Amino acid sequence: MRADGGIGSDAEVDRTPDTCAPDSRRSIPRRVGRRVLPAVTTGAVLALALGWLPLGAPPAAAAPATRHVDHLTLVKQSPWVGPKVPNQDLTMSLRIQSSAPRDALKLSFTVYHPLSTRSAFDETLSGKGLGSVIALSPGLALSGFSTDVQGVTDVTIPVDGDTTPTGTGNWTADLGCQSGSCANVYPIKVTLSDSSGSGAQLVSYLVYDDPSATSEPLRLALVVPLGLGPPTADDHGHVPAPSPAGLSKLEGLLSALAGAPLVPVTLAPDAATLDQLAVTGHGHTVGEVAGLSGSSTRQTLAGPFVPVDAGALVGAGLPGELAAQLQRGDDILGSGPIGVHATKGTWVARTPLDQDAVDQLSGEDAHLVVPPGSVSGPTGPLTVTQPFTLTPAPGSTSTGPAPTGMVSDGGLDERLNGAQGADPALAAEQLLAEASLIYYEVPNLRGPGGTPAVRGVVVVPPAAWAPSAAFVSSLLSGLVGNPVVEPVTVDQLFAEVAVGADREATSRHVVTPTTGGVEARTARAIRAARARQSGFASAVAGSAAGATTAQVTDDLLLAAESSLLSGHQQQAGLAGFNTALDQRLRGLGVRSDTIRLTAGTASVPITLLRNTGYPVTVVVKLTSDKLRFPVANTQLPGAICKAPHVRSSAGRSSFSALCTLDHATNAVYVDMSARASGDFAIHVALESPEGNLVLAGGQLTVRSLSTSAVAIALSVGAVLVLFFWWGRTLWRGKKRRGAHTVARVRGPVA
Description:
The chain is an alpha/beta fold. Helix content is 32%, strand content 23%.
């Protein structure tokens, strides 16, 4: 063997110093070292490869025992315990999955010293940094626990804290704290093990609550978005129906909210989602949202058509798009088919705002919730738990009102990411435990005048949040009767939590983001799409059917602006909008005819085609350097058109008239005359009344058989000259013939 553990070659074996006894060397010839040893080595390699001779282990060692795959999942847990009898026991429901026999499984519980900071809490989430142990149970046989038919094992742990528990359970956890000082958040590790050494573990939190009678619980405002992905059009201009999986998650969320009607939450319904559900036959789901919004314990926010980055839109020079989003959102939520009771006054931003966006929003929204890091500091060692006045930054020219702002809590927002994970109940317990830890930062904070100061936090999930029903149910049930965390709506938080009582800054300003926003290419595409949509709407809005059609394409444009989409996806959504709009424009056209002009000026009919379910108002435009259009007051384009506008110059003329196409075939009469004879083409364009969209176009062939006045005059002059020449020639010829005749009569002179 080589020093590195490899098998040596023949030469290496031959050069290896012989360490055998002298007798052994004499009994084995040297040639054996060259021939026999390699054979033995080769056999050893084969044996190792086949697993017959484990390297570094005796050949007779037994094969390792089979390791079992174990899973440990939290199904339910009591969110807190306390010194009073009803709440002295920590209860857990665990789902245990193992291939080991049940009688070989054991559970053990480890309680660690309480946490003092949120950074320490974050470290414990991964099972690290748990600190020192204050209570450790022995391995408890799983057979000693109660398990239901679904395989869920119930655990009861009496907690010895400020008081000694009166009941019994599977094991008693002694916190080892002095009476009156036990209230805090304790990590607790649950370990599943079997006889083979395999196992699984999870880390939850034991929250021991014993607040003083004069302390104020932490106000927690949870914002719950209710929506699916934005209904954008595909490459063919079609909007896919809501996915069954997404719809199932939304209905599960609504069911969980309905199951806790007394817990105040703030609902943020997505107007585009509700509109799509209403038109695709999911009115029951829409009705559930409307029912939740009518509850006295719920606040329902008015908002945009789809979730948007307000700061990015305004920063890209698209404030009109933000206004259109808000108006469309109001129209849908307040419409009869939707019936959602939404209120204005509060805007919840998930992305940073600039001052221009604040100015635009503060006209209707006196309360703004902004993401962490989007406003000026500094912040103190405590969690920011109170509102502030959102004033303009120094040097700003803003003249708008200064709204009241609040920063959403980034740590609690992060806990919401576990709502879609494999252990949603554990994720809910983690959020509740961290909220309790915020309370225990300063449980008896005093504000101005020495009165108890109310602190609060806002929890804002992503706009496309699709939590499991188990997470929402666990979270809401953990807030019912919670002694240190009180659920409120966002407006209730602004009403109950005063500005500056936590001695943090009472005035802050927005920090303009240096990255992100709407890409320049996307902003240009949005502007171009808006111009096309505006032109189309001006052409078809004269009837109810036309206005409805224009609203459909407008919604596709607004949906493409969703902040849930990447820049590439926004571009795809805008392409889908353009495709859908082009499909609607295909119903208009100009019939290709050949026009024969046989007179100096003629009234020529131009046939316009309409294959739409609604009338369309267009501007008919003709421009040519081969035609001349008489003055406008002599033009009579027909009953479907208004008086035209005619412009003529030395070499070019144009005709335009506003016409309403309300038949499949429509004739517009245009008086024209040709500047020259022959065949030539003329283009006819149908433009929107606003003039920013060509709705359709066509080409006519003009065959001029008439002669112009100049040509006629020249021809007449040529004929007169010819006649004069002929007459003169005849006259001179007659005189010559007369003289010749006289000479012949007289004869020669003598």
